[in-house]
Specification:
335 residues; alpha/beta; TIM Barrel; two-stranded antiparallel ribbon; 11 strands; 12% strand; binds zinc ion
């Protein structure tokens, strides 16, 4: 099997839309014509297909062939993979130095032009800004943060996020309850990210629709859009990453609210699975895709919307957009 030329089954695993989003050929043609960036990845516009924007690398030897095969099986065209957790200490810290973790995730992503390596960074590390520079130089396409030791946005981390914005690289945050065996929930409530208003030009995503604080997540999304009135174009661009998280009985409600609240969320809501690269759970992903597609069908979202959720949002998240015109919500009674 020639893995250098990708043959993912592009289109909709479990899609309810009648037209598949694209054929393999369309994907191959798009890759051929596409502009290539660091590590030979497609940049600017993503080829047709569905993308999984939230996948984790666990410690161990990369097996990029297996990952590509799993993507094929799940009907995915590509996605974002996050390097292993950086919060390791003692002897393990050497084994998991930033440089090694970056090389490792790059290797995991190496057999597809549309699997993008992200570096999971500890923004409180004293040399975090230098690590951002090094990661970008090595070809990292974005960052992941689960702030383990405090609020996600503070004086320590703001310069690090500014550095990412400077490099035009996005960042996915864990938001919502974290089952880490510690009293940490206060740190993960979406309102904590309002501090990113001081990082204009940053593109960031809150994962898991911040479950169980989905309403708060949507409200923060609206607030940041509305902040354009006070701050001009200089506000960060927020994305919602729908990675579960949300148990099914809450998920339909959460997705319904996201897509009917009336805010300008088009191209700002992405799908993610939270799978691992070393044992990508195809059934898990296709099951969630099927579930979400059924909700979207009920909401009357057409194939254009499906393409927005499964591809264009990830494209905009990764590369930004020249089109910054957004419609600004002005909630009644809130001044
Ligand atoms: Zn995750």
């Amino acid at each position: 099997m020639n893995l250098s030329r990708r043959t993912f089954i592009v289109g909709a695993a479990g899609a309810v839309g009648t037209t598949a989003l694209a054929s393999n050929k369309a994907y191959d043609n798009a890759v051929k014509k596409a502009k290539k960036g660091a590590l030979g990845k497609v940049v600017g516009s993503l080829p047709p297909g569905r993308y999984d924007a939230h996948i984790h690398v666990y410690p161990g030897e990369p097996n990029p062939e297996a990952l590509v095969k799993s993507f094929e099986k799940a009907g995915l065209a590509g996605g974002c993979i996050f390097s292993e957790c950086p919060n390791v200490f003692g002897d393990n810290a050497k084994k998991h130095s930033p440089e090694k973790s970056i090389d490792n995730v790059i290797k995991w992503a190496s057999l597809s032009p549309t699997i993008y390596p992200f570096y999971w960074i500890n923004p409180a590390a004293p040399d975090a800004c230098d690590i951002v520079d090094m990661a970008v130089e090595k070809g990292i396409y974005g960052f992941k943060v689960i702030r383990a030791d405090g609020r996600p946005v503070d004086d320590k981390s703001l310069p690090v996020y500014n550095r990412m914005a400077y490099h035009n690289k996005p960042i996915t945050f864990h938001s919502g309850i974290l089952w880490d065996g510690r009293p940490s929930s206060d740190n993960f409530r979406p309102a904590n990210w309002e501090g990113l208003l001081d990082v204009p030009k940053l593109r960031f995503a809150l994962a898991h629709i911040s479950w169980p604080w989905c309403d708060e997540c949507i409200a923060v999304f609206g607030k940041l859009l509305n902040a354009i009135l006070a701050r001009g174009e200089k506000v960060p661009e927020m994305f919602i990453d729908t990675t579960p998280g949300t148990p099914k009985i809450y998920r339909k409600d959460a997705l319904t609210k996201v897509f009917t609240v009336g805010y300008d969320i088009r191209d700002h809501v992405m799908f993610g699975s939270d799978c691992r690269t070393d044992r990508y759970n195809v059934n898990w992903t296709t099951d969630w895709l099927k579930f979400d597609d059924a909700v979207y069908a009920e909401l009357g979202l057409d194939n254009g919307w499906l393409d927005s959720i499964y591809r264009k949002s990830v494209e905009r998240y990764l590369f930004g957009s020249a089109d910054t015109k957004r419609s600004i919500p002005t909630p009644d009674g809130i001044v």
